[in-house]
Amino acid sequence: MLSPVMSSRSLTGRGTAALILGIVALVLSGPMLGGLAVLVGSYVLVNGIFFALASALKKGVEGRGWLFLEAAVCIFAGIAIFMRPPFSVLGLTHLIGAWGVLTGALQIGEAFVLRRHIEHEEAYLLSGVLTLFLGFAILSEPSTGPRTITAILGIYGIMFGIFSLVSV
Q1: Whole-number Å distance between alpha carbons of 64 and 46
Q2: Among residues 24, 63, 67, which one has the least CA distance to residue 49?
């Protein structure tokens, strides 16, 4: 029998990283774009490399394609954010929005694979829907300032972290 896509340890780590993102974004929600870029870039890279890619590289993993795609999207977005941290507000907004839409759709796909391996698969599905919603919300109003985006990311991080930790 194949093993689940993500272990409970990976889900716990991903949820903890999201909670940290959320708390830091809300507590330090100053209008500095560079800080926002570092915060989001760090989360996206950690999520892509240490959780999605590491889980996809396990032997005998069921549904690893979803994780490879998610890892690729996260790693690409993280590198793009770090390569141009003084990015314009509009450019960073579009990049974060695109990451949210693509990653959310992939997480929804993962939820259907994981449902046979975790007890609270609906919480994992909700985290994917939340990520998708984050992407669409940011893309729907790209002229939103960095302070608003930081607050939205903070709320997202806390909710995503809770959903991920509940699904363990």
Answers
A1: 18
A2: 67
| 131, amino acid identity | T
Q: What is the pLDDT of residue 3?
A: 47
Token pair, residue 106, equals 């992939």
CA–CA gap between residue 146 and residue 11 (Å, rounded): 29
Q: Nearest Cα to 85, choosing from 46, 136, 32?
A: 32
**Which of 48, 47, 46, 141 is CA-nearest to residue 93?**
141
Q: What residues does each domain of the chain span?
A: 8-166
What distance in Å separates the CA atoms of residue 7 and residue 164, rounded to the nearest whole number?
Answer: 12
Q: Is the pLDDT of residue 37 over 70?
A: yes
140 closest CA partner among 93, 81, 87 = 93
